[in-house]
Amino acid sequence: MNVMPRPAGTELVLTRELKAPRERVFAAWVDVKQASLWWAPRDFTPLSCEMDVRPGGLWRRRMRSPSGDVILKHGVYREVASPERLVFTYVTEIADGIVDPETLVSVNLADLGGGRTRLTLWHTAFETELSRDDHRGGWTGCLERFAHFIEKT
Asked: In angstroms, rounded to a whole number, what is the distance separating the alpha carbons of residues 92 and 60?
């Protein structure tokens, strides 16, 4: 069997330490009422969020960009392992009909003790470095919003 190596620049890994227990962090990722409040990049307005959190279940969210465009994100949950791991596909559709190729997101939560959690987000299968970098900006702002949400509620 031949295994093709991944091209350089197709992966994004972000890590964030949070002042919240792992169970609380996981709950904020799987509860639609909570996710609808934080799951959008900084300066974007969340519009809707739907989640069927189980392997094979669908998720879908809409948001408005600062320029006014409505962006749709959606995918399918591949793995749900409470409270340590979520894996889901990730597709972006922009108002002008542009659809990004499907990618894969893994969210891993490590219990650091003392009510602290290390969140590692691994987003893979980007076709270009530009796409990866665009998502880096979005996820960075989203995780900042998430940290504020999780530590203040």
From this structure: 10
For residue 99, give the DSSP letter.
B
Q: Residues near 141 by Cβ (< 8 Å), separated by ≥ 6?
A: 41, 42, 43, 44
Specify the pairing of strand 58-64 against strand 70-81. Answer: antiparallel
For residue 85, which amino acid is it?
R
Structure tokens at 83: 């409270």
pTM comes to 0.90
| pLDDT tens digits for range 139-149 | 999 999 999 99
Question: For residue range 74-97, what is the model confidence (pLDDT) as tens digits?
Answer: 999 999 999 999 999 999 998 777
Please provide residue 16's backbone torsions phi and psi, each rounded to the nearest 5 degrees: -145, 130
